[in-house]
């Protein structure tokens, strides 16, 4: 199967899936080599021209709907009033149908006829403002959505405040009674200290998460993986509501959405209240868009020096330790975390932080990205 992605149309790409889920990094490398070797000589067979390919849309949707219905008991969302931000998501209509079939009263909002590049890891201020407006206007208990290709969830509470993707992942792991969590270094550090899971950290990207999940099978138990963007992967079969939910090592947006809503229903607690009970460190993240890959590389090379990194982050105190699993993740003596990494699929530089308050975490991200922009500008001037 081949799909599009969630990133802007002018740089959107394609993603490949095999019968068992997403392709691996080794598969990507093999495809790249094959294209390099064969693209010049390759000619499309004449028999393929004008061919009508078999369509399996209805069968696929029916299978996906059936899997979603296995996650919660019938009627388990009765009494809930939920919003679905549809925009251009391929999952928009099915998400409304599934939530209604489980008993929820659903308000569909924001449907668009054009592509909307919703990034669940860096939701823009305009989208957040819409979510807050809709929860007030329609009296919603929560509002949910996905990115454009429907593999990453977006969840906001009754105030329109977003739940970060790693918090959604944690809630889903608890819902599934997971034993092992595999998640990238960008996910909240509090997940490593709480709840009794065995936690493994990887580089950013679902292929790395999948590889680590496969390596964890020897330990047994329920294995799950998720990313800070909310992408959730089920690495082993598990029992849910007396049924077997089979492993699905590719990102599934419905499982985390239904897990969060099911937790709300079973505990009879608002999402804002559950967020407080889970009590993870406060995080923030943002990105510099249209930031050339070469600028990112030069910045990362510069900051590889501990002295340069300390100077760059001096306004936040003293660097205590550095994790270079993916980009540069600095833990300060204060306990605050500042993480810079170039995006793997767009000309962007991303920054993540952890601090004692949301305002402090957001201020750290804003200041760090300003510093990165200033470095790039100075670097360009020196090149002239």
From TrEMBL:
The keyword Isomerase applies. GO terms for biological process: carbohydrate metabolic process; peptidoglycan biosynthetic process; UDP-N-acetylglucosamine biosynthetic process. Its cofactor is Mg(2+). GO terms for cellular component: cytosol. Keywords: Isomerase, Magnesium, Metal-binding, Phosphoprotein. The keyword Phosphoprotein applies. SUPFAM superfamilies: Phosphoglucomutase, C-terminal domain, Phosphoglucomutase, first 3 domains. GO terms for molecular function: metal ion binding; phosphoglucosamine mutase activity; phosphomannomutase activity. Pfam families: PGM_PMM_I (PF02878), PGM_PMM_II (PF02879), PGM_PMM_III (PF02880), PGM_PMM_IV (PF00408). It comes from the Bacteria. Residues 312-366 form the Alpha-D-phosphohexomutase C-terminal domain. Residues 1-37, 66-160, 177-278 form the Alpha-D-phosphohexomutase alpha/beta/alpha domain. This is Phosphomannomutase. It comes from Rhizobium loti.
């Amino acid at each position: 199967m081949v799909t599009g992605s969630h990133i802007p149309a002018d740089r959107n790409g394609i993603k490949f899936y095999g019968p068992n889920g997403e392709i691996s990094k080794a598969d990507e490398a093999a495809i790249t080599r094959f294209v390099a070797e064969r693209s010049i000589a390759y000619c499309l067979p004449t028999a393929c021209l004008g061919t009508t390919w078999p369509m399996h849309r209805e069968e696929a949707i029916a299978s996906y709907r059936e899997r979603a219905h296995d996650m919660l008991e019938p009627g388990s969302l009765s009494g809930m009033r939920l919003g679905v931000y549809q925009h251009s998501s391929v999952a928009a209509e099915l998400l409304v149908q599934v939530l209604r079939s489980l008993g929820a009263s659903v308000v569909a909002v924001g449907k668009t006829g054009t592509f909307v590049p919703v990034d669940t890891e860096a939701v823009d201020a305009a989208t957040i403002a819409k979510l807050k407006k809709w929860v007030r206007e329609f009296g919603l208990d929560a509002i949910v959505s996905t990115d454009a290709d429907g593999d990453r969830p977006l969840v906001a509470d009754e105030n329109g405040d977003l739940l970060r993707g790693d918090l959604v992942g944690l809630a889903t792991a608890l819902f599934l009674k997971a034993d092992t969590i595999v998640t990238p270094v960008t996910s909240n550090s509090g997940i490593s200290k709480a709840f009794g899971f065995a936690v493994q950290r990887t580089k950013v990207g679902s292929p790395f998460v999948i590889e680590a999940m496969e390596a964890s099978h020897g330990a047994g138990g329920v294995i799950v993986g998720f990313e800070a963007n909310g992408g959730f992967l089920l690495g082993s079969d598990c029992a849910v509501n007396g049924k077997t939910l089979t492993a699905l090592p590719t990102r599934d947006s419905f499982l985390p959405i239904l897990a969060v809503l099911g937790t709300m229903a079973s505990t009879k607690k608002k999402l804002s209240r559950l967020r407080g009970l889970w009590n993870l460190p406060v995080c923030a993240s943002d990105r510099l868009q249209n930031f050339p890959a070469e600028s990112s590389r030069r910045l990362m090379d510069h900051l590889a020096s501990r002295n340069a990194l300390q100077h760059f982050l001096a306004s936040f105190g003293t660097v205590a330790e550095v994790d270079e699993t993916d980009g540069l993740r600095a833990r300060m003596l204060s306990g605050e975390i500042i993480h810079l990494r170039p995006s793997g699929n767009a000309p962007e530089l991303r920054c993540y932080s952890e601090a004692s308050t949301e305002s402090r975490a957001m201020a750290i991200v804003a200041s760090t990205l300003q510093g990165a922009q200033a470095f790039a500008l100075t670097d360009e001037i020196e090149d002239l």
